Amino acid sequence: MADETTPLLSRRRRAPPFYAYPAIVAGLLLLFLLAAVASGYNLTGDEDTWVSNLGAYAPFVSLRVSGLPTGCRIDQVTVLHRHTGRYPTPGASERLRATLAKLANATVPAHASGAAFLRAADFEMHGWEFGELTDPGRRAAWDSGKDLRRRYDLPPFTRSAGGSRVLESARLFLQGLQGADYDPKAWPAIDLVIPEGDDANNTLCVHNCAAQRTGSAGVGERADVLHLLAPASARLSKLLSIDLEPEDIPNIAGMCGFDTARTGGWSAWCHLLHPDEWEAVGYVAEVERWYAFGGGSPYSRTMGAGWVNELIARLTDSPVSDNTCTNRTLDANPKTFPLGKRLFIDFTHDNEMVAIQAALGIKRHLPTSTDKVPERQWVLSSLVPFGARWSFERVVCGKERYLRMLVK
């Protein structure tokens, strides 16, 4: 049996050639402000455990942002924004249905108060619009725009990947940014919508890396740690008189996240797992994502480098220099890729943000263990929850320029 420091090396792949991007110019100072406070969710007791371990399906928690030093000002901001809360994708819904079919046959004992909701649960997910935003997710996008309207006084330029949930998030965000009343059917125009697809050069939705798309990155590494969920499946199988497997536990956790996104309040599904079981759920999800799209993938830095090079171009007011996944036609046109003193907002997906984090070289690693959950440093829910928002502020202090990065 491996000890807690044993790395998952057996399935690591040889990295392809990496097209290096220039380092962010000298004189830019990278700061990380990660002090989060609750926003719309009461993070007490179990709720903090849920947020920490729901991974990419966690609700957004806002930042309390420190002020700037005297004499400093922000003259440019780039915001990388994930779409807000959504229903499960069609593919994920099929995995959920397999577990829900088992739970529909559960016998809930009188003493199992945390499972009592199963007696009247909706196991068919009636009315769920798979892959689309939830109503609270729509409102969250508008709230995000309203928040940045208060924070920044710069002319905006908005880009969005073309997926429906990303584009809808961008439009409702812009509605709030413009100071308009919330109206989910009145959508302002986005400056640039970039189509999604396997043959598209789109830094906000990178699907043109065939090796990553057709490979199995993260699958084997996840299998190495899936047994950590066996105690949870055994406990619930005994409690509910059904036959659950470790593979069912992430689906139960997923129902917590998606049902919370659907209602805007904590779901009864969250109570089915104990805190130590939640920790294992969070770790298993992070192992899979780390090796599929994060620092453990041989493709992640190249997949994220295109957007990083666009960020560098904005920060330095210079043309984009890139040989990866940028759209050179769009980036060479000042109408579709302007520079200068602006508020740039780019709407994207969580996987792209994970790859971009790897390309940025931020020193957050995933301590790997196959026999128990290690102390976690790379926490997915702190990076890419629903509505994740990374702000890159260009700060001017006298004759010097600095970069402040706000992650949440």
From TrEMBL:
The chain crosses the membrane at residues 18-41. Its main location: secreted. One of its GO terms (molecular function) is acid phosphatase activity. Gene3D superfamilies: Phosphoglycerate mutase-like. It comes from the Eukaryota. Keywords: Disulfide bond, Glycoprotein, Hydrolase, Membrane, Secreted, Transmembrane, Transmembrane helix. GO terms for cellular component: extracellular region. Pfam families: His_Phos_2. PROSITE patterns: HIS_ACID_PHOSPHAT_2. Disulfide bonds join 72-397, 256-270. SUPFAM superfamilies: Phosphoglycerate mutase-like. CDD domains: HP_HAP_like (cd07061). Monomer. This is Phytase A. It comes from Cutaneotrichosporon oleaginosum. The lineage of its organism: Eukaryota, Fungi, Dikarya, Basidiomycota, Agaricomycotina.
